[in-house]
Every structure is written in C-alpha cells, then in structure tokens.
Amino acid sequence: REDESFGAGGHLSIEAEADGAGNFQVTARLEEVDIQAVEEMLPRDTQLPLGKASARVAFADSTGKASLEATVTASLDELGEVTGRIGANDERGAVELEWYTPVQDLITVGGSVPWDLAEGRVDWHLGNLTARSEGVNLFVFLDQFPQLQSIDGFVKFDLEVDEVMGTPVVRGRIDAEEL
C-alpha cells in the first residue's frame, strides 16, 4: 500500500511447497526495504539507521526435522554493510554477523548454543561467542560514542567466550594501535 502517510517500503514475496508426505518449506524474501519505513512501525523512541535491508527466511521440515535459515543484509548510510546469518534446528541455534565499516574494516561476530526444543531446554552454559577483527578504525564509532572524539587509531581483536550464561570464560587478545 502506498499513500501520503506511508510510502513504499520494499518488496515481499512468500513461496511455499509441500510434497504430501509431511515435508515442506516456506520461504519469505524482503528486498530493498527502506529501514525508515520499518522505524515508522516501531515505538516512538526507536531510532534506526538510514539505509536499505534485504532478507531471506526459510523454514523447512523434512522427515520430522525442522530447520530455520535466515540471511539479512543491510546497507547503512553511515555504518557500512552488515550481513547476518541465522541457522537453527532441533539441536542448535547459530548466528554469524559480518560488518564492513564505511572504510571496509571487517568485524565478525558469531555464536551458537545447543538446545533441545522438544524438552524446551536451552543449554546456555554450553553456548559460545566469537568476535574478531584484523583492525577497525575507531573513527567509525564517533557518532555513537562522542567520548572517543579525542581518540584515533585502530583496534584488533580475537575473542572467544564460552559458557555465555553463568560465569563466562573469555579468552583472546585485544590490541590497540596508533592511539
């Protein structure tokens, strides 16, 4: 729907297929969604960055094993390019994010957690997270963190976190250069 109060926000398509034996897949795609159009649907104090996003979500059940796969890509005017992947099945959920800053520095964040959906149990104590970058220029964060105005330089990091609930175990390295 397009009118003066709510403009076009992108394109949505949904596909479904089933084989009659209980196997099915439903796929939804959002293409070139204006993030500001999404912001208009959220509570008043919510602020989202300017840009466009696309997504593909697929839910399937094959021989009693359900799975969900989702990919979201966003081109954000002041933040760069972000890609997120989510995968889940009856035994585990996983997420991976890649952020290319406006100067093409790369930050990757990932994690997974095992679970038993049939029992409604999430084993957070067995979950893990990772965060890595070969170097990210700190000026990218100036708009979000004004306290960094007087700091210039690069931060490299390679971190792993196990037992994301309870007492996390953090391993890795953070290096700051040219501060």
Keywords:
179 residues, mainly beta, 11-stranded antiparallel β-sheet, 11 strands, 3% helix, globular
Concise synopsis of the structure shown:
With 179 residues, the protein is mainly β. The chain is 3% helix and 58% strand.
Written account of the structure:
- The structure is a single chain.
- The protein contains one helix and eleven strands.
- With 179 residues, the chain is an all-beta fold.
- 3% of the residues lie in helices and 58% in strands.
- Strands 1, 2, 3, 4, 5, 6, 7, 8, 9, 10 and 11 form an eleven-stranded antiparallel beta sheet that branches.
- A hairpin with a 2-residue loop joins β3 and β4.
- The radius of gyration is 20 Å and the shape is globular.
- The protein has one helix spanning 35-39, and strands spanning 11-18, 24-34, 51-62, 65-76, 80-89, 92-100, 106-116, 121-122, 128-137, 154-162, 169-177.
- The model has no long low-confidence stretch (mean pLDDT 87).
The shape is globular
The succession of helices and strands, N to C, reads EEHEEEEEEEEE
| Number of β-strand runs | 11
* Main sheet record: 11 strands, antiparallel
The end-to-end span amounts to 51 Å
Instruction: Give the overall pLDDT as a whole number.
Output: 87
Structural class: mainly beta
Q: In what range is the share of β-strand residues?
A: over 45%
* Helix share, percent: under 10%
Task: Give the topology.
Elements: E1 11-18, E2 24-34, H1 35-39, E3 51-62, E4 65-76, E5 80-89, E6 92-100, E7 106-116, E8 121-122, E9 128-137, E10 154-162, E11 169-177
Antiparallel strand pairs: 1-2, 2-3, 3-4, 4-5, 5-6, 6-7, 7-8, 7-9, 9-10, 10-11
